[in-house]
Write a structure and sequence with these properties.
The protein is an alpha/beta fold. It has helices spanning 12-20, 44-50, 70-79, 93-106, 122-134, 164-179, 219-241, 266-276, 289-301, 332-346; strands at residues 59-63, 85-90, 111-116, 143-146, 190-194, 247-252, 312-314, 317-318. Keywords: Oxidoreductase.
């Protein structure tokens, strides 16, 4: 859940300093030598340094890497670990160009692929997926990070007839992931779904997921449904792909400031907290973008997670803490039901 509007610290200075001296220690005072010490204050750069052997030479795909967001911060942190390729999927060249420039400023040898796609349009997603499949310079994908999202926007239906948050935050990723699975077939590959504690706001509206009666629309019910869908998607991916050695995790990155909050007003912010933590709940402390992308990176990189039970991470740790994830988001039956509903909505069956 991301509702703070504090200024985002500059990343360009950090990138320049790293380029001058790539062996420099990380800028925080936190020193993490064991996975169980990762937590709220851990940064993305620290995770990449700690799991450098899981970054170097590997291929990562990230959706929603627009400037100033955690998708961009995730990509920039990964660039410090010398990956072979970073595939960036987003709506326009203009929105992603600063992220590409930042990556090249760190290491010009990294192959950066920009795939333009509107995740709210299933036709656009299918076209983008085919381009990825047809691109011989992408032999495989080691980690797919489904990061893109829209938060608490006014009511809107896409051309496909889907509620906008559900389309951009879940259905687009559902179609993209299933279409490019042939390139995620290597054992050890991972699919990461960036959710949030916003899942506490609502489960899946099984009878009317698209709020076709617009008068019933609530921004946070729609956001909560999408964030719940992210978690259920990971659960069902694990069930279907375990025999292939492919895993999936979902996560809460924390509360941070980015363009994700562009639709928020003070009234909407208060409504969010009332719905998610209640009148007497304690609001979580805000994170920097570096801290916010860290949980994504642990989910994407740590090999020790393969031997652990669970699908949900918060503050870089596997957890079932009910203050960050709702029971309905961890329900295996609900995960199977969501898969079937998603297939019905997008008009395509995936026999994974």
């Amino acid at each position: 859940m991301s509702v703070w509007n504090s200024k985002i610290g500059t990343r360009s200075l950090e990138i320049t300093w790293k380029k001058i001296n790539p062996k420099i220690k990380n800028r925080t005072t936190h020193s993490h030598t064991m996975a169980n010490s990762f937590g709220f204050h851990t940064t993305g750069d620290e995770l990449v340094e700690h799991f450098s052997d899981r970054v170097a030479g590997r291929i990562f795909l990230i959706t929603g890497p627009s400037e100033g967001g955690i998708g961009a911060e995730t990509a920039i942190s990964l660039a410090c670990g010398n990956p072979s390729s970073l595939i960036l999927v987003g709506r326009s060249v203009e929105r992603i160009r600063p992220t590409i420039d930042a990556i090249r400023n760190i290491n010009a040898a990294i192959q950066v692929k920009l795939v333009v796609a509107d995740l709210a349009s299933m036709a656009s997603v299918r076209e983008a997926a085919q381009k990825i499949l047809d691109d011989a310079s992408i032999p495989h994908i080691d980690v797919q990070i489904n990061n893109a999202a829209i938060m608490a926007c006014p009511y809107s239906l896409t051309k496909d007839g889907f509620e906008l948050q559900l389309a951009a935050g879940h259905l687009g990723h559902f179609v993209l992931t299933n279409h490019i699975l042939p390139k995620l077939s290597k054992p050890g590959a991972r699919i990461i779904n960036v959710s949030s504690m916003g899942n506490l706001a609502s489960g899946i509206r099984w009878d009317d997921p698209n709020f076709t009666k617009g008068s019933e629309y609530n921004e946070w019910d729609a956001y909560g449904q999408t964030k719940t869908a992210n978690v259920l998607f990971s659960i069902e991916l694990n069930r279907r792909l375990a025999s292939k050695g492919i895993g999936s995790f979902a996560l809460h990155p924390g509360s941070f400031s980015s363009g994700l909050q562009k639709f928020l007003t003070e009234q909407l912010v208060q409504q969010a907290w009332d719905k998610i933590i209640g009148a007497d709940g304690v609001k979580p402390s805000p994170k920097s973008l570096q801290q916010a992308c860290a949980t994504t990176l642990r989910a994407a990189l740590d090999p020790a997670l393969e031997g652990e039970e669970g699908v949900w991470l918060a503050d870089c740790q596997l957890t079932t803490d009910p203050t960050t994830v709702a029971p309905w988001a961890l329900n295996a039956r609900g995960a199977r039901r969501l898969w079937a509903l998603s297939e019905d909505l997008v008009g395509e069956k995936f026999d994974v």
